[in-house]
Amino acid sequence: MIGNLLSLIRFYFFYPSFFVVIIFPGLLFTGILLLTTIWFERKAAARVQMRVGPYYASKKLGGYLQLIADALKFVFSEVIIPAGVNETLFAIAPILLLLVSILPFAVIPVSVIPQSGSVFSIYYHDFYDPNVGYGVLAGIFTCYNLLLILALESIYPIFVIFLAWVTNNRFAIVGAVRETFLSVSYDALILIATLSVAIEYHTLDLAVIVQKGIPGVIVNPIAAFIFIVGMLIGSSRFPFDIVEAETELVIGPYTEYSGFLFVLTMAGSYVGNFIYSLVFVDLFLGGWYPFSGLPGAAIMTFKAVLLLFFSVFLRSVYGRYRIDQALRGSWKYLFPLSLISLITGTLVGYLWL
Amino acid sequence: MAVKEYKKENPFRLFVDHLQSIGTGIKYMVKPQRITLKYPEESLTLPTGYRGIIRLYKDVCIGCTLCAMICPADAMKMMTYQGKKLPTINYGRCVFCGFCVDICPVDALKETGVHDVAFSNRRDLIFDPEKFNKNFDNPPEDKVVKKVRAVIDEEKGIKYVPES
Amino acid sequence: MEVEVVPVQGELNVGPQHPGSGHMRILVKLNGDIVEDCELDVGYVHRAVEKLGENRNYMHLIPLVERPAILDSIHMNMGYVMAVEKILNVDVPERALYLRSFAAEVNRIASHLYGLGILGIFIGHSTAFMWGFGDREVWLQILEALTGARVTNSYIIPGGVRRDLTPSIIEMTKKAIVYMRKKLKDWEKIFLKNPTIMDRLQNVGVMTREQAIEWGAVGPNLRASGVNFDVRKAEPYAAYSKLDFEIPVYKEGDGYARTLVRFEEMEQSMRILEQIIKDIPEGPILADRFLKQIPPIRMKKWVQGQGRIVLPGYYASFRPPRGEAAARVEASRGELFYYVVSDGSPKPYRLRMITPSYRAIYVFKNLCKGARYADIVSIYGSLDYFPPEADR
């Protein structure tokens, strides 16, 4: 009886639609990762900047719990709703923002399921992908997952603009205008970079790309470079911290937020960055290959975390570009480069893969 | 005198510059050069002649009022205490210029080199001759404070060496 | 098809509570991303130094005049004391002059590092901010050992200086120079040659030679526009006539040139420090006239024993003769001018101080016109404008 119940719980716990989206690398893991990333960002910056960084919140852990202390402080601080805004929209805007940023977890394939020998093997048939010959470990299995991820990610800026519009603050609106300009330019870059890889591998399925066994960074390094830059712009990391430019726009679209709602606005860009990193690992760094099952998911997440750490580390190296410089850079230099990567992709895909 | 001009940026140089900036960042991340003083555990011993909190030697003082006259912030005032003219000081006004110490003709005032003191209300900031007559320092009693001295180092900028 | 461009106009109130405004309000009229007009609302940290100066006696003013720019206090102090000395007609001994130059150059390096740090954080480079303040600490340690305070040194008094150089300070300075030279190379890699910084500063806030002269720019801002003017060369004070140093002058007049001028001035200041350490003559550090008033016992104990001047009672409230004097020094942000009128009483009749940041207000306003909104902070930082100094 109890054994039966346990196996039932086990079945539902490891069911990919639940496990991938909620446990690993979905919601729960992302929550922990968020703490770790911000801790790493602060510690790395501190090391470069002759400081110690967070320390006293938990001396033995090197200040790791500082962020929890900060979050607690934010939770208990007053949420100030400015006069003259629609309270409902003001409150739900950051929640929507976080929601939308997390959505793509549902479709990112994180590993493959072999027919036997893995905890996921029982779901082999439910998530079977005929193009790969394995089951695919993803929240929802679809062979157009690349398309879906990009579509979901491109909604994100709309919600940033919505949030800024709701708060009715001049700095927020200037920030929103900057976000509008940037989102157009980085979305184009990321789309073309992914497209060139998709053409190269003749598929829109990330699992197929990874199972080919040749990392995209070898067959199309230009696309990889452009994707990274697009990722940095898309998740407002330095040197493209233009939307939130502190000394110019206070904190851009999030200026009016305080308390816990402010924490929610901050989380969105980190989650977005993590998702872009996962997609990057799938596309260019060979994803889980040659592992499968849980180790495959772990190795893939590990690579994505490394990339995420690198992109937050850039804070301690760079200043920020001006909006027109970022736009000129992406349209004048990177956009033609991305077209070259498209041609490279087409040629290499036709001749080799 | 030659008017200089910086070289306009070379597009091929750009990539190298990017790498160099990131490289320098990584270099410092791997080998950090920290100068933070962990304050409550470590406390600085200030160099001799540091113009910190001032103390009075009541018995030496001759009540000449020169210190009160030169005080730029009117922090030091003279008062009659037990039949003798003695200075009092209001640390709410003191700017720690040290003029009073330097002008005292009998060395009745001395800089103690203590600067990290805290008071819970403004009345405590006013030191009457009795309070002024003592070394004012209240080190935490229940904790071990490591006394360190800041030393300029060629490699690390500032190094803190334990006070022997 | 014709595209109609609708002008998007609006105003932004940057400050006084804003991460990028400092102690002032910048009223920006925007057209799209272009700043059409920029109104600087200064005076938030006005402390009426000039008026207070009429109600304090001469020694009391030493700590006061250095308050507007505490990070540049040696220069603020020195300019005032030089004007007073002119009224008193005192000859300052050679060693005191060298010591003044020494303290001033240490202070100049510290102040430039502070300015670079602020410039860094304004354009988002947090490492430059922390490095600027961290490396400044090294020089403040020297000032602390020499004068007894990190900032607000009150080191220079009419007739000389208050404390003498000790061998340990010389040792510290030598080490600090070695360290700073090494660190400046890393500064160059991570800040000066950083492509984001170059993009943000080059061709931003360009001030031509004529404009710089017309708008009254001073100091490094003027020299970055190709005008070779430095009070240390034009009208040498302290020991500068005996020291060999160069004035870095750049042609471009943009933010990057201004930053480069500051960087090279730090190097020149270190050269000056090395020369001072080598050449400093022996002798008294206070004018004979005042030294004679110190009683012999105290002279032996303090002045000869510890290299520390004890003030004779004269200083408590002296009455200089009737007269007026002007003095100017090259503070780290540019020419600093003092005008003191004495009517024979212990208090000055009039004290006028024109600070370098005060001159930068008009330059700032003019440079912002036509710049992009994001450039306001980079112009602000590259001018090294320090609001308390301007407001006095």
Automatic annotation (TrEMBL), chain A:
Presence of keyword Oxidoreductase: no
GO biological processes: aerobic respiration
Membrane topology category: Multi-pass membrane protein
Entry's Gene Ontology cellular component terms: membrane
Keywords tagged on the record: Membrane, Transmembrane, Transmembrane helix
Keyword flag Transmembrane: yes
Transmembrane segments annotated in the record for this chain: 12-40, 89-112, 132-152, 189-210, 222-240, 260-281, 293-313, 333-352
InterPro entries: NADH_UbQ_OxRdtase_su1/FPO, NADH_UbQ_OxRdtase_su1_CS
PANTHER family: NADH DEHYDROGENASE SUBUNIT 1, NADH-UBIQUINONE OXIDOREDUCTASE CHAIN 1
NCBIfam families the record matches: PRK06076.1-2
Protein name listed in UniProt: NADH-quinone oxidoreductase subunit NuoH
Organism: Acidianus hospitalis
TrEMBL record, chain B:
InterPro entries in the cross-refs: 4Fe4S_Fe-S-bd, 4Fe4S_Fe_S_CS, NADH_quinone_OxRdtase_chainI
Domain 4Fe-4S ferredoxin-type: 52-81, 85-114
Any one GO cellular component localisation term in the record: membrane
GO MF, one example: NADH dehydrogenase activity
KW Iron-sulfur (keyword) present: yes
Superkingdom per UniProt: Archaea
Any one GO biological process: aerobic respiration
Keyword Iron set for record: yes
Keywords per UniProt: 4Fe-4S, Iron, Iron-sulfur, Metal-binding, Repeat
NCBIfam families hit by this protein: NuoI, PRK05888.2-2
Protein name (database record): NADH-quinone oxidoreductase subunit NuoI
Organism whose genome encodes this protein: Acidianus hospitalis
Lineage: Archaea, Thermoproteota, Thermoprotei, Sulfolobales, Sulfolobaceae
Automatic annotation (TrEMBL), chain C:
Protein name: NADH-quinone oxidoreductase subunit D
Keywords on record: NAD, Translocase, Transport
Domain of life assignment: Archaea
Signal peptide: none
Keyword Translocase: yes
Family: Belongs to the complex I 49 kDa subunit family.
Species lineage: Archaea, Thermoproteota, Thermoprotei, Sulfolobales, Sulfolobaceae
Organism the protein comes from: Acidianus hospitalis
Pfam families recorded: Complex1_49kDa
Repeat in keyword set: no
GO MF term list: NAD binding; oxidoreductase activity, acting on NAD(P)H; quinone binding
InterPro entries: NADH_Q_OxRdtase_suD (IPR001135), NADH_UbQ_OxRdtase_49kDa_CS (IPR014029), NDH1_su_D/H (IPR022885), NiFe-Hase_large (IPR029014)
Domain NADH-quinone oxidoreductase subunit D: 123-392
Annotated transmembrane regions: none
Coiled-coil blocks: none
NCBIfam families: PRK06075.1
